[in-house]
Automatic annotation (TrEMBL):
PROSITE patterns xref list: THIOREDOXIN_2 (PS51352)
UniProt-recorded name of the protein: Nucleoredoxin
CDD domains to which the protein is assigned, alphabetical: TryX_like_TryX_NRX
Residues in Thioredoxin domain copies: 7-207
Gene Ontology terms describing biological process: negative regulation of protein ubiquitination; negative regulation of Wnt signaling pathway
GO molecular function: thioredoxin-disulfide reductase (NADPH) activity
Assigned EC number: 1.8.1.8
Similarity section: Belongs to the nucleoredoxin family.
Top-level taxon in the UniProt lineage: Eukaryota
Catalytic reaction(s) noted: [protein]-dithiol + NAD(+) = [protein]-disulfide + NADH + H(+); [protein]-dithiol + NADP(+) = [protein]-disulfide + NADPH + H(+)
Gene: LOC110503929
A GO CC term assigned to this protein in UniProt: nucleus
InterPro entries per the UniProt record, alphabetical: Thioredoxin-like_fold, Thioredoxin-like_sf, Thioredoxin_domain, TryX_NRX_thioredoxin_dom
Length: 316
């Protein structure tokens, strides 16, 4: 495979990404870790490896006993990147403790693996003592780094959900756990269209997002907007899933609330409704379709033109 590397502007810079020049497919998002861990290029071309291969090795329990990846076979797996020094991590861990117990008590085959970003063995041990799940040994820095590379971790806390075959279900485990404390939607397969809220607004920074703003004077008025764009969102998700690639566009509907107002203000959007937009926060770019009527055909054309790079961006 012929690869080339690019430096891109993102929420975390510098950022080095390796791409397959023949297909344009991202091979590795955490190129800086690759260069640090494999300076002689012995693992080139640094393509993704199966989770089972990367995580293979001893796994710890907090009673100091060890197990191996056989404990994960046939299970949904949560891979939890976190650290004791990080206040949002500690807050999420408290929620995860309840979620973990809830899922286990429901009879689901579920296990979690803690991948520490702590700054010392002592800090790791203190933090891990609170956790009933498994962990990669802190001393195994190479394996921790490979897991960070595998999932392109750019910040913590991050919770990755995998199916029993080791395929990714979602990168947004943190959002899902906070939005679903009773775990009714476990294992949190991605939903085609989300209603914009404070808890999921962080996903606006994950990549380009289509946001349909609508008037909502009464509860339930977002449903027609979701139904309008859902078939297009489902088609996009299915297309890229078949290619084993990440969906290039997330889909949201937004009503009239403080979160939507803040987003309009931040991105300098007009107050019109309905308003069809695509927001790319990392590129600080927006694309706006201000028409009187939003139809499936209008949305379809807007999305396809964006994916084909036919639209002219405006600065955010």
């Amino acid at each position: 495979i012929f690869l080339f590397s690019i430096i891109r502007c993102s929420s975390v810079i510098p950022s080095l990404v390796f791409v397959d020049a023949a297909t344009g497919k991202v091979v590795c998002r955490n190129g800086l870790l690759v260069v640090r861990d494999d300076p002689k290029g012995l693992e080139f071309p640094w393509g993704p490896k199966p989770f089972a291969e990367v995580v293979a090795g001893p796994l710890l329990r907090n009673n100091r006993q060890t197990t191996d990846i056989s404990s994960l076979e046939g299970h949904y797996v949560g891979v939890y990147f976190s650290a004791h020094w990080c206040p949002p991590c500690r807050s999420l861990t408290r929620v995860l403790l309840e979620s973990y117990r809830t899922v286990k008590e429901s009879g689901q085959h579920f296990e979690m693996v803690f991948v520490s970003a702590d700054r010392s063995e002592e800090s790791f041990q203190q933090y891990f003592s609170e956790m009933p799940w498994l962990a990669v040994p802190y001393s195994d820095e190479a394996r921790r780094s490979r897991l960070n590379r595998l999932f392109g971790i750019q910040g913590i806390p991050t919770l990755i959900l995998l199916d029993a075959e080791g395929h990714m279900i979602t990168r947004q485990g943190r959002v899902e756990v906070l939005n679903d404390p009773e775990c009714r939607l476990f294992p949190w397969h991605p939903r085609p269209v989300l209603e914009l809220s404070e808890s999921n607004a962080v996903q606006l920074h994950e990549g380009p997002c289509l946001v349909l703003f609508v008037d909502t004077e009464e509860e339930g008025e977002l449903e027609p907007a979701k139904e309008l764009i859902q078939p297009i969102a489902e088609k996009i998700m299915a297309k890229y899933k078949a290619k084993e690639e990440e969906t290039p566009l997330l889909f949201f509907v937004a009503g009239e609330d403080d979160m939507s107002d803040s987003l309009r203000d931040y991105t300098n959007l007009p107050e019109a409704a309905p308003l069809l937009t695509i927001l790319d926060m990392s590129a600080r770019a927006k694309y706006v379709k201000d028409v009187e009527e939003i139809t499936p055909a209008v949305v379809e054309t807007f999305v396809q033109d964006f994916l084909a790079e036919k639209l002219k961006p405006e600065p955010i």
